[in-house]
Amino acid sequence: MKINLRPEALETLVAQVLAANGMSEENARIVASAIVAAERDGARSHGLFRVPGYIGTLRSGWVNGKSVPEVADAAPGVVTADADNGYSQVALAKSRALLLEKARRNGVALLAIRNSHHFAALWPDVEPFAVAGFLAFSFVNTRSRVAPWGATKRLLGTNPMAFACPRPGAPPMVWDQASSVMAMGEVMLAAQDGHAVPDDVGIDAEGRTTTDPKAIMAGGALLPFGGHKGSAIAVMVEILAAALTGGRFGFEDRSAQFPGAESSNAGQTVLLIDPSVTAGAEFGARVEELFSRLASVGVARLPGDRRYAARRKAESEGIDIDEKTHDYLRSLLPAARPG
Prior knowledge:
Structural class: alpha+beta
Shape: globular
């Protein structure tokens, strides 16, 4: 049986669940927005599927659900934020106004977040900045899950990155991808659903190629996309998200000391560029010419188009969740009631 909820109603429910399990109400609203954005846009691996991980991490004591980030005006084009061992989205929300102000004044601005946990899709972080007219990049490092090119043991994180480009009269073009062949959330989802993964996704604890997601998770490692090229990109993200921000490297993660914890204390970098400063009013038309040429050679859709289609459907028809998931969410509330 499916239960249909409006995105706003589901966001309220998830925020209530998070607040009932250790988050401040303000932080819960911010994080719930990211979770439901993924569910709404069809990214199941980063939506409600992640709620048990948030709850386990909160209950473990590894993350500070009541974090109060410390935001600093570090330089004319730089904002820094100590996330107070809380979720990165909270620090980003607290830094957004100052970051935008600097980007508008200088044409470029950077936000460096440290002491933070990022356990969600990355595109919700950058898309709003593109809506505001900026090119936006973000880089996040995570706990060690990926074997570098030529190695058989994990060292690097899945180290996702995202890019958003504004478009005149259309939603931004946005992509969000891990440095690994497959994001860990997708591997976890395959393990839960009993599905194999492709044979280029990971290795087992002995360094042998495997299609068993549980073997990858139990002492094995993910592989970088594109072999040595993806490995180099993962190293770049590690530097940009950890070394540059003052955050932890993936191999410095201590979450294993907190049973139930699933997120890692690491870093995030966000970079904004105002294209009107460099390309002037022609930027939008130039981008559309590129997209038109892509379509002319057979590209059926741009990055993000599938998510936008799922979003329109969810906003029109609501979000269907199975009864088991709904009951689980309700069970996490005080005085939970069926229905």
